[in-house]
Amino acid sequence: MSIYILGIESSCDDTSAAIIKERKILANLIANKNVHKDFGGVVPELASRAHQQNIIPVINNVLTKAKIHKKQINAVAFTNGPGLLGSLLVGTSFAKSFALALDIPIITVNHMHAHILAHFIEDGSEKEPPPFPFLCLTVSGGHTQIMLVKSHRDMQLIGQTIDDAAGEAFDKAAKIMGLPYPGGPLIDQYAKDGDPEAFSFPHPRVPGLDFSFSGLKTSILYFLRDALKHDPEFIRKNMHDLAASIQHTIVSILMDKVRAAARQTGIRHLAIAGGVSANSGLRNAFEAEKETGNWEIYIPPFEYCTDNAAMIAIAGYFKYVDGDFAPQDTTPFTRYND
Ligand code: KG4
Ligand code: ZN
């Protein structure tokens, strides 16, 4: 008999639900009311309230879309961290109640591991998932990590940011340039017609495989403050070149450490995951590395880069087959290392 898992993601601002049959995705829906656009970032209280409004309609719609009756579902997998506590509590409480009512198990899923496991979703394409062990650069709005992935369940963090995440660097740079939240995708858009060498920003010096992005934000801030003194229209006139140069800097900082990780571990299967893996500059940098013959690369489809519940469902599936269920008194956690 097939195994059906309902996945629920509510760690940040997206309320998402997905249903998988084993590894095959049947439906994956995301609701985001865009309530944060005018605030320059996610407002936790608004996010919690939006999840509360969205969760029932999203679940109903995903069941309809997957053509599944709720009684067919074998387990409910949900993100229990890291993320915003209020947001996580909505998904957690819903998952517990839903599972209690149906008398089925609940499965907790680490959001960052789920981003990586998105590579194992069967979506009808011919693409092969990465073989173990592989390295994954996981880059999102809240995290930047290099993970040594030994199996679906065994992952070792070998590098991470010591301050801002790469997505945060994109979003903060965009905010300084007057762009709405989330600015990452907009920088990507503007960068397409810009010169990546037009402006240069310093690279941080961080030992080992760790990253730092807070200095970049400060240097962009000071650079633009000075430039605007001379020409108040500077940003508008140079939008494309600024976006391309900022993107180029962030991507080079990421690539330097990924190359170092590949050298140190001798692993040549390299993957990317998380919201920033949708960035065309980063995807192209990975493709270029493949062209040199150094690496086999694994890039997720766009829809599984940014937050989604399909990745939660697949991560839940791997725990389901191991019988790794959570008790009803489980609580969410906010930070990766907690
Ligand atoms: O993984 P994700 O959807 O949510 C978190 O877990 O944080 O990542 C969201 C981040 C945001 O910072 C957003 O600006 C960034 O991913 N992002 C991008 C692109 N698409 C999303 N950054 C640069 N270029 C993109 N195309
Ligand atoms: Zn994420």
Give the strand tally: 10
Order of helices and strands: EEEHEHEHEEEHHHHEHEH
CATH H-level homologous superfamily name of the largest domain: ATPase, nucleotide binding domain
Unreliable segments (pLDDT under 50, ≥5 consecutive)?
none
What does this structure look like?
Helix content is 41%, strand content 17%. With 338 residues, it is an alpha/beta fold. The protein folds into 2 domains: 133 residues, ATPase, nucleotide binding domain (Nucleotidyltransferase, domain 5, 2-Layer Sandwich), CATH 3.30.420; 170 residues, ATPase, nucleotide binding domain (Nucleotidyltransferase, domain 5). Strand 1 and strand 2 form a beta hairpin. Helix 5 packs across helix 7. The protein is globular and about 65 Å long. Bound molecules: 5'-O-[(R)-(carboxyoxy)(hydroxy)phosphoryl]adenosine (KG4) and zinc ion.
Summary keywords:
single chain, 338 residues, alpha/beta, Nucleotidyltransferase, domain 5, 2 domains, 5-stranded mixed β-sheet, 9 helices, binds 5'-O-[(R)-(carboxyoxy)(hydroxy)phosphoryl]adenosine, binds zinc ion
Short overview:
With 338 residues, the protein is of the alpha/beta class. The protein has helices spanning 44-66, 85-102, 111-117, 166-176, 184-191, 214-230, 234-265, 280-291, 310-321, and strands spanning 4-9, 15-21, 24-31, 75-81, 106-110, 134-139, 144-149, 155-160, 269-273, 296-298.
